[in-house]
Amino acid sequence: MKHKIIAADLEPTEHEIAEAMNEVKGFIDITPHDFLKIYHLIHTRAATKFLTPPPVRKRTGWQKWLRPLSEPAPRVHIKEIGWSWLAALVGVGLVAWLNNAPHATLLLVGSFGASAVLIYGAVNSPLAQPRNFVGGHLVSAIIGVAAWKLFSNHPTLAAAVAVATALAAMHWTRTLHPPGGATALIAVIGGDSIHRLGFSYVLLPVFGGSLIMLVVALLFNKMVKWSEYPEFWL
Prior knowledge:
Blueprint: H1 14-23, H2 32-51, H3 63-66, H4 78-100, H5 111-121, H6 130-151, H7 155-173, H8 179-189, H9 192-195, H10 200-222
Helix pairs in contact: 1-2, 4-5, 4-10, 5-8, 5-10, 6-7, 6-8, 6-10, 7-8
């Protein structure tokens, strides 16, 4: 039967301290009894320090402007910045080019600019994964169009309902993607060109444009060795 070790078993005795002191070379001007007192003081202070949470730093007034409470985000290596820039250039540029081609259908919406920051510059974020990127835009587009159809006579209400409901729906479907809020809002405030699309807005520009940008993200992240994208699909 194994003996269960408790904290008391690890406490040294004066005899053990004396034996340890004899093994130390040189002269030690202290008795084992005094050493045991010192040991207990050190042990108590160390335990107190370990169990006591660090004090919360509070800064007021001008101190907040000189030094923030939290440390700044770590600096990104120049090669990562370069690849993020190039991926965003190709991804957004490709969608914009197809959007502006002769006889082309609408493919570019403003919320894709915010998405580009996530899927090309923050690939490890859960909010940038394909489920969130594509799913968040789709859910938000559906809700945005529905909000406009229901409350088109009250644009202010339609805008508020679209964004708030899109946020709740993305949470519920586990597809939270912050630019999705803008996708829902664009369905309301995008003007006649967007309103005429109706629920086609969900397929083009939202679904089609997001797929193009996703493919670019997958290709670029396969070319580099320091990042893995996606971390999950579903």
